[in-house]
Design brief:
Strand order of the largest sheet: 14-13-16-10-15
Number of helices: 15
Strand content: 15-25%
Structural class: alpha+beta
Distance between the termini: 7 Å
Radius of gyration: 31 Å
Number of strands: 20
Helix content: 40-55%
Shape: elongated
């Protein structure tokens, strides 16, 4: 569901802006001054749309267009090839995404959603409000780089750039360049294609650059941060299973989950997944420790068939099961309610009694926590503190904390700097790649429309000599592409907001 407070705030803000604009324009005293002020600053305002245009960057674009003409020719020619290939690829990707969306609509399997390559992003719904800044800055950067490609390519092909601008539509920011249409119509279709393909080409390059930076981030941050020493806790959700006096704290370094070593965030996730899908580990306890006085009564069977012997719901005791050392042939398990921290502190994990015999000099037995099927007992190692003991569903522990691979070498370094760089790079990769895909689609009002028209003019002149027939072919192709994109957006939006 769309968060109502967010919608109300956005609507209220736009209503206030539009009401102020209407009042000033209807005022006899302030109308001329206000309209002159808007014109001098290149501002245009309409319902849910604010646009700003300027010529201050034209010299920068012209300077970039004069840098090494031969290299620029090869650069934008590569963009032309990429743009033509991406048109076909974007259609295939949208068809695949539409199939996945339709399949997801007919099933209740939540894993189907994660299989989609493209998803509609709605702030406050499937985009956390805490990451809105990453989203909008990365989206604006991707848009500016996209339009920079168009502007430089146009000037290189002797097409005048009237200006560059930015806009905000509802809540989404973007950028644009205003090209001189007369010049654009005078150049050849191949030259036009270089200009029209330059935007998606630069988005692709930005995506690759951000991905490379993300991959080399440990190398860039090596003088200040180290990796491979464990997973560093950067945030603990208040009231979560990891919170509390003996829980995890910001700055702790997790080095292990049970007998599974943790060297980074990926190991943390893999270990939790492994512990979720394997039987509960046991612990080697001396036989002398199994005192009958620790048993608080007979074990009773839970609804799922497992046994519980701690009927007093103690916060410090846990029901353990084991096989009596003197009666191992029968394989009948005994149950005892014992103080959990005392029993597992400093003990070795085991799967059977034989593991304890091999590694212990004293008579020991393998005791296993008797828990419900999906529940696990997990010791979290975070030296120099004592183990954090977790009893519950392992994914709950995974979502209770935020972690990073980067451990600062010096105390004055901020824990969140690597997290900020990682997150921002991931948003740039996602959004710049998405812009490249969407703008490549042969669809009305997108780059794909002009790319397709120029491509048809460059390739079908000798095959279809009649210009009107070529335009008719282009129209139907654009109609199909627009319908495909609209179906993906509409169904994707419904899936995000209605479920």
């Amino acid at each position: 569901m769309i968060p109502v407070p967010l919608v109300v705030c956005v609507m209220a803000a736009w209503c206030a802006v539009y009401l102020t604009d209407t009042l000033l324009k209807s005022s006899v005293k302030h109308r001329n001054t206000y309209e002159s002020w808007l014109a001098s600053r290149g501002l245009m305002l309409s319902p849910f749309h604010l646009r700003w245009q300027t010529t201050m960057f034209n010299r920068l674009f012209a300077y970039c267009a004069r840098i090494n003409p031969h290299a620029l020719y090869l650069w934008f020619s590569s963009g032309l090839v990429f743009g033509v290939v991406s048109m076909v690829g974007s259609v295939v990707l949208l068809v695949r995404t539409l199939q996945q969306t339709l399949a997801q609509m007919t099933t209740d399997n939540p894993r189907m959603a994660g299989q989609q390559a493209l998803q509609v992003v709605v702030p406050g719904v499937n985009l956390p409000t805490s990451q809105l800044a990453y989203f909008f800055i990365a989206l604006l950067l991707s848009g500016v780089i996209h339009e920079l490609g168009h502007a430089v390519a146009a000037l290189r092909e002797q097409v005048r750039v009237n200006g560059f601008g930015m806009f905000v539509f509802v809540v989404y920011p973007g950028a644009f360049v205003d090209l001189f249409t007369t010049h654009l119509n005078l150049i050849s279709p191949i030259q036009q294609l270089r200009i029209f393909c330059a935007g998606v080409w630069h988005n692709f390059v930005l995506c690759v650059a951000a991905l490379t930076f993300l991959f080399l981030l440990p190398l860039f941050l090596f003088p200040m941060y180290t990796t491979g020493a464990g997973a560093l806790i950067t945030e603990v959700v208040q009231g979560s299973p990891a919170d509390g006096p003996r829980g995890l704290s910001v700055g702790d370094i997790v080095t292990g989950l049970e007998d599974c070593p943790v060297k980074g965030v990926e190991d943390w996730a893999n270990c939790l997944s492994h512990l979720s899908h394997t039987p509960q580990t046991g612990y080697c306890v001396p036989v002398a420790s199994l005192q009958p006085s620790w048993a608080h009564g007979r074990a009773f069977k839970r609804l799922d068939g497992t046994m519980d012997c701690c009927s007093n719901n103690s916060l410090t005791d846990l029901c353990f099961s084991y096989i009596k050392p003197q009666d191992r042939n029968s394989k009948e398990r005994e149950f005892a309610c014992m103080p959990v921290r005392k029993m597992v502190t400093g003990t070795r994990v085991c799967r059977s009694d034989e593991d304890c015999v091999t590694h212990s000099h004293t008579a020991s037995v393998c005791v296993t926590p008797s828990l419900e099927n999906q529940t696990r007992f997990i010791r979290v190692t975070h030296p120099p503190n004592t183990h954090m003991l977790f009893v519950g569903y392992p994914p709950h522990l995974q979502y209770a904390v935020s972690l990073t691979n980067f451990v600062p070498r010096f105390g004055f370094l901020h824990l969140d700097l690597p997290v900020f760089l990682e997150t921002f790079c991931k948003y740039v990769v996602s959004l710049s790649g998405a812009l490249a895909v969407v703008n490549s689609v042969p669809c009305f009002a997108l780059d794909g429309q002009w790319m397709l028209n120029a491509l048809l003019e460059a390739t079908l002149v000798t095959v279809v000599t009649d210009r009107q027939r070529r335009e008719l072919i282009g129209f139907f192709l654009l109609l199909a592409g627009s319908a495909l994109l609209a179906a993906n957006v509409a169904l994707g939006l419904w899936m995000v907001t209605a479920r």
